[in-house]
Structure formats: structure tokens, C-alpha cells
Amino acid sequence: MIINLPYLKELLPIKVGGPWPFITFRSYTLAGQHILWLSRQHRKGLNLAARALGDTQQPFWRSKFYNQTVGATFALGSFLFMLGCVMSLIPASPWQPSAFWTNVVFFAGSIPFTTAGYLQHFQAANAGSFNVAAQPTAPPHISFIGWHPRNAGWLSTFTQFLGTIAFNFNTFDPLVTSANWVAQDLAVWTPGMVGSVLFLASGYLAFIECGHRYWSWEPKDLSWWIVFINLVGCVTFMVSSILAYVPDGTTPSWVTMASTINLLIGALCFFIGALLSIRESDLT
Description:
Layout: E1 2-3, E2 14-17, E3 25-30, E4 33-38, H1 39-44, H2 48-52, H3 64-89, H4 99-125, H5 152-172, H6 181-211, H7 222-243, H8 253-280
Antiparallel strand pairs: 1-2, 2-3, 3-4
């Protein structure tokens, strides 16, 4: 698609693209400089286009410190999930942690996940609209949730935030729910499945936003590695949740172990993705 804006004499036609129905990049020339506007970089303040025109002023939610805080908080939640998985995998012995304290660690990990998820969504909700000067414009008012369903970044962070809330219930309910299989499936497994579905949707939306296609392979791009690794983590979280279903009867030990191992792999992916996002924030 090409959009002509004849009232700007210095502006050449804007080429826009992205996986339908989203626009995730714009390419044009302004004041003799080639500008490449990218959706992910725009909402996170990694705005190379604006910097090319000499504008480095950013609102606080696009600052390097803000992005590093989000990454570090995600990393903390991921680490606690990994720790909970390791505690679950310790064989029966005097050193085996109790199920109660293992669940406490999982619930503690869900809190940073939700905190970072909201901080990231707040960033997307206040990203501001595109303008040809490629300068980050503050929204007319601060939005705590926003409504931008045609924006892949906003949809990704919103579904992720909702998923983290579901995992709050998934990790807290084992502390107060009986061992009855029906109660376990309703109070623990169901919110875990809901959270996993939302995470998977969020991970794929972030992937197509970054790659500008339904499938992409950009191994030289740091941002692509972040969304790709996170997407792998979302897939393993989904596998873990499916295997965590509690049947009316005895669950084979290998199923429980496989569920925990997949959860551990997913948490490790999120941990790596969070650390890489801290490195990505250096571009702010």
C-alpha cells in the first residue's frame, strides 16, 4: 500500500506493511533521510526514526530505565517460576521442599509477571499515534488500559496482562483448594489453561509485530530473538497446562514430570527473553 501526502513537499510516498489487519512498519523519506518506523520500536521508545531526525525526547514510559525495569521484573518472575519447577522435581528425600512452599514460590513468581505485564501494557496503551515527523507524541491523556484492537502491540500486551492475572489464580488457588480432582481442575487447571491460551496469543502477536509477517526468520535481529524465544516459552507453557489436567483417578508420574519440565523450559525462555529485552533497552 502507498499513501501520498502531497501537502508535505519534502515527504516521499509512505510504504506501509504488516500482517493483515495490522500495520507494523512504515518506510519513507523525510528531509532527505530514509525513515523506517517500526511498531515495536515505537511503543517501547526504541525510536530510531525519531533519533535520525535529532529528536531524543521521550516520555518516561519509553525511557531506558522503564524498559530495563520491565525486563528485570519479568526476569524475577521467570526465575521464581524456574525455582518452583526445580523444587517440584526434587525426588522424595529429607531435602524435598513441601508442596505448600513450592506453591508459595510459584505464587510469588506470578506477582512480578503481572506487574511487568501491566507496565508493558501501559507503555503500549500510551504509545501515541504515528506521525510523519517520526517524533514520539504524548497522548492527549494518560490511558491505563486503552482500546487499540487494530494495533498488534496493544493486543499482545493486553492479552499477556490478562494471562498473568489468570496465572495469579492458577498459582494462588493450590494454597487454599482441596485435593479433590474436580476442585483442582476448576480452581487450578482452568485458570492455568486460560492463562496459557492468552500467553500463546500474546506471544504470536508480538512475533508478527516484530517480523511484520505471519512467519519470519530474522536471526540477526535482537528484537526478533526476544519475541521468538518468548513464543517458544508460550508454547511450552501451553503443553505444560494441557498435561497438568487432573483426571478422576491416578495420574502417571511421567505426566506430572513432563508438565513440570515444560513449565521449566517455558520459564527459562521467558527469563532469557527478559534479559535480552534489558539489552534491547540500550537502543532507547
